[in-house]
Fold this protein.
Amino acid sequence: MSLVLLIIMAMATATLLYTINTLMPTKPDINKLSPYECGFDPLGNARSPISIQFFLVAILFILFDLEIILLLPLPWSINTNPTTTTTTMTTALLIILTLGLVYEWLQGGLEWTE
C-alpha cells in the first residue's frame, strides 16, 4: 500500500513540476543566453593577467594547509603510538612549518606591493 502511495506521490510531483515549468513565462535575457553567466566577456581575452604575488600567496596557502592536514590525526595518534614518538614527530613538523613561514617572511613573499 505504501509503495503504491509513494509512486502516486512521485508521479503527481513530477506532473506538477512539468506543468509549472511549461506554464511559467520565460524572459530571455542577453546574459542568460550567454554560456558564461559569471560576468566575463566570452569573446574577450581568455588569458587575463594574474598577479604573481597572488599566485605565490595561493601556493603558500596550499602548502601550509597541507601541513595543517598532517597535524589533524594528532589526537588519535597520541592514543595509539608511544607518546614520545608522537611528540617528536609533531615537534619536528611544527618546526619545519615555522621555519618555512619565517623563510618566506624574510624573503618578502608575504609582502604585498602595488
The first helix runs from residue 2 to 23.
